[in-house]
Amino acid sequence: FDTGKIMSPKLYVIDVSPPVRSVYLAAEALGLNLEYIQLDLFSGEHLQPEFRKINPQHTVPTLVDDDGTIVWDSHAINAYLVSKYGKDDSLYPKDLAKRAVVDQRLHFDSGWAFLGVRNIAEPIIFWGDKTIPEQYKANALKVYDFLERFLDGNTWAAGDHVTIADFALIPNITSLNVLVPIDEVKFPKVRAWMQRSEKLPYYNGGNKKGLDDFVTLIDNRLNP
User: Fold this and answer.
1) How many helices (H) and strands (E) does the chain have?
2) What HEC string does 27-45 produce?
3) What is the pTM of this model?
4) Would you call 43 a catalytic residue per the annotation?
5) Which of 12, 73, 95, 132 has a C-alpha 20 to 30 A away from that of 39?
């Protein structure tokens, strides 16, 4: 857990985590050379005192930049990375009105999409639950419905081009889809957005492997 001078930024991760995959997408899009350090959350490695000194919330992803700057929370990390390393501001616009839309989507991701995944996945993964409560299924449908409305007239989550809002939402929506499948008839814009996302040149490296691991983990928990 060294936070001293390093050759490249370090990112503490576990691949199944949607927030981690969000940062993977940003890093891949930016062409960054990050050093990925896998933490075994299942054995409590993230609870060790050394990691708590870096991130008192002991969450992943956590970034330690090459100058020693420490940032955690995927939304904060992505905003930091694209602001520092981006060739332009397309991924996180400097224009206040455009940035406000991106920020709104990021808060939606944090308060709705990620929470939707966590409320369902955490009891299955850590507590041995075998069923999904109806209220959480209903909440997932609300997430899809809101995103469907956001995409009305927009190609991407916050407008006509990819932003860090998409990087946040892609891992969570694709993971939520594993738990509560998206109805293509009710949510055609969400499905089309997912299909566009899968064609991004950095999708496979950023989201696919971790999503596949997430699918396997959930299946193993539900069907041991």
Assistant:
1) 10, 4
2) HHHHCCCCEEEECCHHHCH
3) 0.95
4) no
5) 132
